[in-house]
Predict the structure.
Amino acid sequence: MPIFKEIISKQTQILIWKYSEEEKFSADLISDEKEFENLKQKSPKRLIEKQMVRHMLKKILPNHKIRYYENGQPYLEPFDKFVSVSHSFPYAVLAISEKKIGVDIEQVKDRIDKIKHKFLHPKEIDWLSRAESEIEHLTAIWCIKEALFKIHSSKQWSFKEFYVVDEFFLDKFSKIKCKVFDKDKEDKFLAHLEKIGNYYLAITEEE
């Protein structure tokens, strides 16, 4: 199978797949026949993304299945490891870890500038004034916050008010400090950021 890249550590394995039109998938990768037919008719790209994720899981954990809670958060069955998934066509990402992990992949697009007021914390606005490439930084910040959202329990909280990413440089971002907080407590995380073509991949774990 055409794995684009693997990131492996003692506790974590992350697979990244870039889709090619020559690839064909079988219906049995999605066990729910109704879901398969619905995606095939209404969102063929979404169907491909889901199949890529399940194919990657089959490669590294052939006896596991991805299930979803009512809030859309994925989990593994049997539940002996943590999982996080993300896709932005033509890429799909699967992360399996011994500890909680969040991943997100986002394409760099100018239109993110129009929504920055919805997700930037005041501290980020301050240091972004010194950034060398605002669109790139905005995409990376959004990507990190999406990955944090997948790992943090308080999913109702606002990116703008309760999520903060520390200043980073686009050529030096191996470990970026970030946190989710309210008036009572704060949870600290580290984000690993990678540029893949015109996309950013964020991987977040507890500090």
Summary: Helices lie at 33-42, 44-60, 116-119, 122-128, 134-151, 159-162. Residues 191 and 204 are 4 Å apart (CA to CA).
